[in-house]
Amino acid sequence: MLTILVLNMLTLAFNIQPAYSTSLVFRIARIYVNPPYFKANLNDAVSLNVVIESVANMYGYQFYLYWNKSILTCTQWNYTTETWIQNPSTAPSQWGSNFLVAKQEITDMPDGRSRYWLVVSATNPAPSVSGTFSVVTLNFKVIGVGQSLLDLDKTKIGDPDAQPISHDAADGILRVGISAAIYIKSDGSIDPPSAPIQRSGNLYTLENNILINYPLDGIIIEKDNIVVDGAGYTLQASGNGTGITLQERNSVTIKNLKITSFRFGIWLYRSSNNNFSRNIITNNGYGVYFWNSSTYNRLDGSNITTNTYYGLVFGRSSDYNSIIGNRITNNNEYGILIYDASNYNSLVGNKIINNNNEGVGLYYSSKNSFSGNNVTNNGYGILLGQSSRNNIIRSNISTNTYYGLVLSYSTNNSIVENIITANIEGGAGILLSSSSSTNSISRNNVTSNYDGIKLIASSNNNVIGNNIMKNNWDGIFLSKSLNNLIYHNNIVNNSHQVYTEFSFNVWDDGYPSGGNYWSDYKGVDANSDGIGDTPYIIDTQNKDNYPLTRPWTPHNIAVIEVVTSKTIVGQGFTISINTTIVNRGDFTENFQVKVYANINITATSSNIILTSTDFTTITFLWNTTGFGKGKYTIKAVATTVPGETDTTDNTFVDGIVQVTKKADVNGDNEVNVLDLIVVATALGTHPGEPNWKPNADVRNDGEINVLDLILIANYLGT
User: Fold this and answer.
1) 581-596 b/e (C-beta count within 10 Å ≥ 16 → b)
2) Domain count, the chain
3) DSSP state of 694
4) What digits encode the pLDDT tens for the residues 94-138?
5) Is the dihedral of CA 593, 596, 600, 603 positive or negative?
6) pLDDT tens across 473-482, in order?
7) In terms of DSSP bridges, do strands 630-638 and 651-660 run parallel, antiparallel, or are they unpaired?
């Protein structure tokens, strides 16, 4: 009899065929984890049930339940493979003792999970049962932080005829956080010690995600001169507190960390010389907040996105910070806000995109520099309010909903060599309003906006050397604006070239310098001096006395590229530095170029002659003999030619070259097998080939070969 029962049970548990039950089921049954979602803290004891609900005619069941074994350990059951254990807690009470537990075991799986396996069958004379049953309670201890799926799998419910009963299955989720902020104390210790952070000297590395269950701060740093490496893990809260707090701290590095769901992602107060690199800061109230004299900090390579208010804020005299190569996108109000006398900050090469209000807002602040940024698809691109002596250069300020660039009550700012295009919803590419004066707008491409450049109640500004083209309404709009100098612009194919009201301005620089190039000028140039013989009439109070008959291009030599043959070079070896120079002006020029490593001149080329619009690439060789080990910034500088008024593009900075030990290829100041591997994996390659590794070309001869290997072999172990 026992053999028959065992065979029936095994058929039910392991070999149920896909047939419909002969019993009538009025409602779909369900097997689920209860509670389906709950929170706990590190070291808590937690319990869960597996429930079979709304079942009819049940005679047996089985399931797997998986969890993350780095977060939970089960304390109820021993790790056992024993079978045929009778345990009343795993069966409906109607069965009494007439049932078999064919499987009840916990197994550690190779994928980082543990698995509980339960197989139960009723035995004769037990009846089939209907209703809702809690079939097992499991007790756990929380040993790690993070989120664990409580994954039900291989669920089966059978009737007395060993036929499957149709049912749904629903998993659970356990989120484990901590109930107190984590401190890195001034003595270097971590409080609480159970926090998933590994310390090695001054390096603190996350070993797991950190979730804060309560409205508390995340990590509070009380020690200087440390590195916190997130290692790709996440620091997460529930909408309150501060992710990373630095108060009066210096020389702290935070890198490779995702910070989410705090009120403040990163907060600095009177903190300086800190570095934030390659972090993801998302879904906070404020992404990064530099406050109250937080100075000389660097933020680079980070993604600051989808924060409720501002992505990045500088406030109350937070000066001399560097913001380089970040993505600041999809923040609900401002991408970047700089205010309250925060001066001398540098923003270079950032992508400031899709922020709902302003890409960059600058208020009551001076002498900040914006260079090479992409400011697109924001409500407003860049807005300056009561701010002076800021530089906005070589940026793309385009496709913003209203205005590309706005100056209000702002003076002595420079707007140079930007691309300002397609800001079309009734705004303008550039707007100066509310007594904005003595600003310089030069060599910008202002195209395809609603209005190109618009001045309202703003006087004594310089608008010189711009391309103002194809704007949908007015190329230049002036209202109640006086004594602005507007010349050497190319004003081409706008729907209306100029609109003026209550304005009197200067439209030329006299003869022979000339005025502006107007695409609709109808006059002639009989003496071929490049200046029209009759004025360009704007209205009764405004005219260009010396209109240009060809587009304006000034004297302008520019270094446009510096490329080093490698980024790591051994002492005494040679590196190539390719420098490209273009003549952006209208005249043939004679000049020289010098290449520097930090402040040291490495090479000079004299008597370079370039005709208008021509360019050349010169290869300089830098012999590193006599240079100390360290990192060198490489730059090329072209001398100023006569008549050149803009020298900002005469200098080009390439980046960093590390001078290290002879034959050290990977820059770790050792010559070992790792350097041999780098060279060996690139043997036989040349520049431009897929596997070319320039640092492996130790001899700098454009080929990686056995001679490079010999050099490394000669210096092995040094």
Assistant:
1) bbbbbbeebebebbbb
2) 3
3) G
4) 888 888 888 888 899 999 999 999 999 999 999 999 999 988 889
5) negative
6) 999 999 999 9
7) antiparallel
CATH number assigned to the domain comprising residue 93: 2.60.40.680
- The stretch 342-358 carries a mean pLDDT of 96
Question: Of 244-253, 367-376, 558-567, 644-653, which gets the smallest average pLDDT?
Answer: 644-653
Q: What is the model's pLDDT at position 649?
A: 76
CB 603 within 8 A of CB 575: no
Distance CA 211, CA 44 (A): 14
What is each CA distance from 476 to 304, 312, 453, 500, 547, in whole angstroms? 36, 33, 5, 8, 16
635-680 residue pLDDT tens: 999 999 988 876 877 898 988 999 999 889 898 989 898 988 888 8
Residues 64 and 103 placed together within one structural domain of the fold? yes
**Nearest C-alpha neighbor of 234 from the set 127, 321, 164, 147:** 147
572 and 713 part of one domain = no
- Residue 370 is inside which H or E element, if any? strand 369-371
Tokens of 20: 């419909």
Number of C-beta neighbours around residue 661 at 10 A: 17
| pTM higher than the cut 0.85 | no
Which residues 6+ apart lie within 8 Å of 59 measured at CB?
Answer: 12, 121, 122, 126, 128, 129, 158, 159, 160
Length of the chain: 718
Tell me which DSSP letter residue 716 carries: T
What residues contact residue 166 under an 8 Å CB cut-off, 6+ apart?
Answer: 20, 21, 25, 28, 29
Q: Which residues of 503-528 are buried (b: 16+ CB within 10 A; e: fewer)?
A: bebbbbbeeeebbbbbeebeeebeee
The domain spanning residue 713 has which CATH number?
A: 1.10.1330.10
Residue 694 has pLDDT above 80, yes or no: yes
Query: Helices 706-714 & 673-680, crossing angle to 10 degrees?
Result: 180
Residue that is last in its domain, among 660, 679, 697? 660
Return the closest-CA partner of residue 368 out of 401, 413, 433. 413
Residue 276 is encoded by which pair of tokens?
A: 């934030």
Q: What's at 242, amino acid-wise?
A: T
Of 160, 176, 192, the position where a domain reaches its end is 176
Q: Which residues are within 8 A (CB) of 653 and not within 5 positions of it... i.e. 6 or more apart?
A: 562, 633, 634, 635
Question: Measured in whole angstroms, how far is the alpha carbon of residue 91 from the centre of its chain?
Answer: 54
pLDDT for res 501: 97
Peptide bond into 192 cis (omega under 30): yes
Q: Is residue 103 part of a domain?
A: yes
Q: What is the domain extent for residue 672?
A: 664-718
